[in-house]
Amino acid sequence: MKEAFKALADPTRRKILDLLKENDLTAGEIAAEFSISKPSISQHLKILKTAGLIEDEKDGQYIYYHLNTTVFQELISWAMSFTQGGNTDA
Amino acid sequence: MKEAFKALADPTRRKILDLLKENDLTAGEIAAEFSISKPSISQHLKILKTAGLIEDEKDGQYIYYHLNTTVFQELISWAMSFTQGGNTDA
DNA sequence: TAAGTATTTAGGTAATTAACTAAATAATAA
DNA sequence: TTATTATTTAGTTAATTACCTAAATACTTA
């Protein structure tokens, strides 16, 4: 979770997640949506992957990225613990 | 939300939120839980407040801080949009 | 094997952030 | 009013981050 919070702090990375919500995409397809360099996008993808928010899958020459929902679910539980219903005490 | 993601990236700020989950606390009481200086804690409180995660209330000489659950609820909605059930398409 | 495409790694720089100390502001109590 | 306590603001510094270009790696195709 620690890594996820840091990963989510950057707007470029949140936009990458938004794109992956629609479709699985290659690193190149993701980079094409931004005006920043491919190496920079590659760095962002690495950070998202380290945080467990995305996973990659190699398909020949390409690397496809897709969301991993596990950490999002953890995030939901975390945030719920701060709302009325989220109190685990009796 | 943009500010909230940035605010949540720091572990000190997340620990402050954990403390406020239990009780409303003054800035001094919060600072006492950490080994960092009071001015630094004050800065963190300002960031959390700007992000809408906490609110303050003056009581004489003291300033009490408490959670504001609104942004946590927004965060839950945001995270849910990335999980299976969260798709708004038909 | 050689050339081309996709992606990452390496190394460097500018901007941001988190911490500090010192000083300012606000309220209370003597 | 003066002293004390609580908290924030101001200014500085060290660490982190986000970006860049250049080079390396991996795969495909001729």
Shape of chain A: elongated
CATH class of chain A: Mainly Alpha
Oligomer: homodimer
Largest interface: A-B, 21 and 21 residues
Task: Give a description of the structure.
- The structure is a homodimer of 90-residue chains.
- Chain A has 90 residues and is α+β, with helices and mostly antiparallel strands.
- The first copy, chain A, has a single domain (2-79), classed as Winged helix-like DNA-binding domain superfamily/Winged helix DNA-binding domain (Arc Repressor Mutant, subunit A, Orthogonal Bundle), CATH 1.10.10.
- Chain A contains five helices and three strands.
- In chain A, strands 1-3-2 form a three-stranded antiparallel β-sheet.
- In chain A, helix 1 (2-8) packs antiparallel against helix 4.
- The interface between A and B is medium-sized, with 21 and 21 residues.
- The structure holds a DNA duplex (30 and 30 nucleotides).
Distinctive features:
homodimer, 90 residues, alpha+beta, Arc Repressor Mutant, subunit A, 5 helices, disordered C terminus, DNA-binding
Structure at a glance:
The structure is a homodimer of 90-residue chains. Chain A is an alpha+beta fold. Helices cover 56% and strands 16% of the residues of chain A.
Topology (elements, then pairings):
2 copies of one chain form a homodimer.
Chain A (H helix, E strand, L loop, with lengths): L1 H7 L2 H12 L2 E2 H6 L5 H13 L3 E6 L2 E6 L1 H12 L10
Antiparallel strand pairs in A: 1-3, 2-3
Helix pairs in contact in A: 1-4
The structure holds a DNA duplex (30 and 30 nucleotides).
